[in-house]
Design brief:
The protein has 153 residues and is mostly beta strands. It contains 3 helices and 6 strands, in the order H-H-E-E-E-E-E-E-H. A hairpin with a 6-residue loop joins strand 3 and strand 4.
Amino acid sequence: MLINAFATNLPVVLSLLNSFSNHTLMFNITGTLKVKMAEQQVSDRFRKREFVLSDNSSQYPQQLCFQLVQDKCGLIDAFNPGDEIRVFFNLRGREWTSPKGEVKYFNTIDAWKIELASQAQPVNNAGMSMNTAAPVSDVSSFTSNGDSDDLPF
């Protein structure tokens, strides 16, 4: 019985598992590439590159500045201003205390993957790719072992 119930409700179970793992959400946004800045060598061990994405999905369009760091700096090279792109990113925040003792907070949007919007895979409301789960082709192998007991042990 238990295995039959699990196999019958597999899509529901997978959906529930996905909702419980929301703490590992992957953020992404689609918009128009507006500006690509030159790479900056901030120190001998740190380099970054910024680009601006125009998000026109709301009543008030937003101009979002993303940052690429280290080995990710070249990700934007394949795209041109005007291209509709999808950007995957992490939000980062930090606290800084000035020499005068003033505490300030800074946020950055760190991009880690960029693709053309026309090549993007559909995404569900949890931000996860829709085709990440392997298809289940035959559930009967879990339930038809010839025993009257539904438990696998």
